[in-house]
Amino acid sequence: MYTGEMLESMKKVEAARDANTVLEPRRMTAAEKDALLETYHPDYKKSEFAALRVGVNRGELVPHELAALLEGKSRVNPDEIDLSRADYECDVLVIGGGAGSSAAIEADNAGMKTMIVTKLRIGDANTMMAEGGIQAADKPNDSPAIHYLDAFGGGHFAAKPELLYKLVNEAPDAIQWLNDLGVEFDKAPDGTMITTHGGGTSRKRMHAARDYTGAEIMRTLRDEVLNRGIPVIDFTAAIELILDDGGRCAGAVLLNMETGEIKIARAKCVILATGGAGRLHYQGFPTSNHYGATADGLILGYRAGAKLLYADTLQYHPTGAAYPEQIFGALVTEKVRSLGAKLVNANGEVFMHPLETRDVTAASIIRECADRGNGVKTADGVGVWLDTPMIEKKGGEGTILARIPAMHRMFAQYGIDIRTEPILVYPTLHYQNGGLDITPDGMTAVENLFAAGEVVGGIHGRNRLMGNSLLDVIVFGRNAGRHAAERAKSVTPGTPTLAHVKAFAEEAAAAGVEAQVQSPKLLPTYSHGNPDFQRKAF
Ligand code: MEZ
């Protein structure tokens, strides 16, 4: 139930709507953005980070929650694992979801014996949760070069140039590939793709399937994997990587999540595609992420010797649902702003350009609530209005049902009609910008260990633009699949070992680290006794 204060504020939003709809707020200057981010963006809150004491990134800062897991205790005692046997043997072992499926399809194309393991079910992944679209510069007024400039600037000029170059140049082909596989992109009657802006884009290059683009892409990838007969081992988590005596990746120790049995998978190459970390709820933020997003790939890779890049930078999606409580933190797609909804404070004032980049938008909302006192208080939190009825004013009646039906449905379940009522939003933990460092062929610092998707760091720099994540899932997933397959053709693994797990534990002990937790975490716990997520009043 809306409180009296919320209803009063909503009246101010309604009264200002006609004027606000046509208002064109200016964009912030670079200096204004820098000052805003330093003061209000969660990445800049130094007390929330710890320096790693173990491993190749020793001395570098990561969020406390991640540090505890990276320095955590292995789930296995290497002395008790019999590596002389193998429950599964393949050329390319793929661990994880959307990028994993893209990789598996390409490895299968190359004729390699490929297998997917996934700790929940195939498709239970952040790819499935992406809503607004996937970027590709495939219109006459656009080019990969312009796409590059948008993404490089949006990521604070920190992206690895060779990775971003690959991302934008292979984007048009990625869209074509998905289209050919059967993704039902939104198209005009003449068959051309409908594209929109996202935050920080200078051209309309967001291709979408309504506002369930990720679900549509994942549906298609999953169908392709299953139709090809690629084996998929569900409810099976990787809990350590296996190296060979030459230090090359040669498989994984698996945990059957239902029976608790340990299984051994041997492979010539391994692809980590385990996704992000939203379920670690950094700094007490809610998350838009899938239930399984617990940074597992970072832990496995790091313990095996792979390097991390930018593990101190996270993306807080500006518009997580702040009300009603049942959907607290759920994603309200950026497409809502692309279609014309503006961010409005408790007094009915538009306080920023709606399509600034995500980090700037999130920091701006936090400032509006924390410092300026212009947030709208909910029963146990705060938010600002996202004035969705502006969409129909701008695009005409029916736009919301035609373009963002899932948003309409999500709020309608709680009696809120976004065609006529604004909605309350606040930043939600959405994406890990950092992750495992890779070369352009997708390999980590550990030979024969590849990575793709959100587990990778460096493609986007220190902030990612909307729609470039679904794109990297496809481009770098396929890339890893192709290169791992190629490499697997000439690999003869040596003797399998978990010596690196022992060595890591010894290094931790020598550094005086007393591991507090077991890792990888695998699933979040939301019980009263062990709450991973304690809602903070923002
Ligand atoms: O790229 C994303 O994170 C995305 C498309 C999210 C969204 O707002 O819909």
Question: Can you offer a commentary on this structure?
Answer:
It contains 17 helices and 22 strands. The strands form six sheets. Strands 4, 5, 9, 10, 11, 12, 20 and 21 form an eight-stranded mixed beta sheet that branches. Strands 14, 15, 16, 17 and 18 form a five-stranded antiparallel beta sheet that branches. Helix 4 packs parallel to helix 9, helix 4 runs parallel beside helix 16 (468-488) and helix 6 packs across helix 7 (161-169). It has helices at residues 4-22, 30-40, 64-70, 98-109, 126-129, 144-154, 161-169, 171-181, 213-228, 296-304, 335-338, 358-370, 389-395, 399-403, 405-412, 468-488, 499-510; strands at 49-51, 61-63, 73-74, 88-96, 114-117, 134-135, 195-196, 206-207, 232-233, 236-244, 249-256, 262-273, 308-309, 314-321, 343-344, 376-377, 382-386, 423-432, 435-436, 449-451, 496-497, 518-519. It is globular. The chain folds into two domains: 4-40 and 315-429, Succinate dehydrogenase/fumarate reductase flavoprotein, catalytic domain (Flavocytochrome C3, Chain A, domain 1, Alpha-Beta Complex), CATH 3.90.700; 74-313 and 433-500, FAD/NAD(P)-binding domain (3-Layer(bba) Sandwich). The protein is α+β, with helices and mostly antiparallel strands. The site of (2E)-2-methylbut-2-enedioic acid (MEZ) has 10 residues, from loops.
